[in-house]
Amino acid sequence: MGFEQTVKNFQDNKISVLNKPVEPDASLLQQRLKSIIDKIIATPDGENLVSFLLEHNIPVAFSKATQYAAHRTNLALKEGKLMPVPGTQFILINPDQDDALLISAFLHEARHAQQCLSGMAMPDKRVSPQHLAVFTRMLEADAQATAVLKAFKMKLDGDDSLFAAGKTIGYQEMYRVAEEQYLKDPTSLDNGRLKRMIFDAWFSEADGTKHGYDGLVIGTVWPFYNGLLDCYPDNSFSKSPLTVKDLEKLGTVGGESMNYLTLPGFRSLGDPYYIEGFSPLHHLQLLTLTEAWQKTPLPTQDNLSKKAPAGGPGL
To answer: Would you state the pLDDT for residue 148?
Structure first.
């Protein structure tokens, strides 16, 4: 089957409309979503991205349940990893936002879908609350670096719409670094170095982005993660620290031949720049959660009574 026919099938069969439409006729939303898919195909590697969604049966839908866009899935244990439950993975985009903003956010969420299908939705071992916060930071930095780089490549090709729109919802430091570093070294665009510098900018205090996600981990992700792992006996997940090699896997979840997270000349992902810098409140909360976590015995087959929680915290 040719690519054009594949895309047509995607548009005809995989697009749904969720929640109450903002326009009188739901078919208008369908038409708009098809237009957005066409624009995504025009982005760098956009064809591969849409093919990826098709291959893994990941629908895209309009919904007001998210501010811009969101990736959702249920997770279950498969071959030692927490993997998406087939048929539960989808991407939502809010019809109230303009197309450029939605596509910019969509590129971020599509990277989360790739992370999940690579077994990187959650750590595949029982890590501490602080290490889960670090893991979540890395997920978000990788997803946004992917989106910013694609938008920047479009800007260089003459279409500034995604780059300009993306800057309006935060991450200004990442966008600034993309432009500044490219001017210093245009070869960095295709050798992974520019993406790594954009990734590093996510952790800068200039935007304070990481603090928002640290709070999300404490209030939402940690309870979900802990509850999910408690559904499996102790021989499924052992208490282990997160390692640099665990984190470096994020650099190739999209099938990349070169891992931008292992390039020479950059900090190790275990550097304090990435894994420290919690706000005083979050630091105290993480210490309290860690103390309780250390005292909690692992579940055994005999005391398992829970069912795996539905859904997930969302990324």
So the answer is: 96
